[in-house]
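call fold target=Metal-dependent hydrolase
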Amino acid sequence: MSNTRPAADASERIELKARKVSFDWEETPLHWVPGDPFTTHTINVLHLLLPAGERWFIHVYRQVLPFIRDDRLRQDVIGFIGQEAVHSQAHDDVLPHLRKLGLDPTPYTAQVDWFFEKLLGDRTLPPGRARQWWLMERVALIAAIEHYTAFLGDWVLNAEELDRRGADPVMLDLLRWHGAEEVEHRSVAFELFLHVDGGYRRRVRTWAAAFSALVFLWQRGVRFFMENDPTLLAGKPSMSQFVRKGREGVLPSTPDMLRSIPRYLSRAYHPSQEGCTAQAVAYLASSPGARGGS
Ligand SMILES: [Fe+2]
Ligand SMILES: [Fe+2]
């Protein structure tokens, strides 16, 4: 336990619950950011990564539950599991619609499934130190990934340029409902990591692994979508497009993403310092998809 433990802001704590949601994809066009396949597909990668990724979070957390000695944190983790289960299903439900529009993501999702289920899955380790090491490593990886889901959630809640450009309201609602719940539960994964391990070297090591994996999988996902989009003749995504779209406000800005790195690696980091719970809760109260599903 070598970590400095910054205190959470108690006023930010709320009871986490999974909300039922329903989204009707019938009217959502292939390029749901009008005239902008690059932005559309960059964000669409979420539908490829999150179903398997969030199922993996749940799988790991169910194994950690017996090691939690704090009732409040256990309740938070159970609420987190419930929310991630609904997120995973909601993004999975977009895939048949993409198939209907001529974009079959199966070849890519098969790779993502392998990544989470095999590479990051349970290894046949003997009970004891090795098995515990692998569990702690994965808990720390999830904390690092959740730094980015909260970052993206906060971004999409404030990405007004997407509205100005006429982005599909159902897709925006899916992203903002999910983003708002990511902001709402943004402290859980990090607090769980602090509770069961909290080692600073482990935090840095797993951040580097998570960040590299996210960049790798994301750029492959965008390339997959652009190459297989039946309406595009030549679709080669590039880093400069990403930077430009970030400047325009339809994707997260590269400088903002770079600035989020030292924040996570700071010993004083706590997720409650990021994003705004009140904004997230206000969105959740008005989300058409979240209200429609209740
Ligand atoms: Fe999620
Ligand atoms: Fe999350």
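return ok
Residues 129-157 form the longest helix (29 residues). The radius of gyration is 19 Å.
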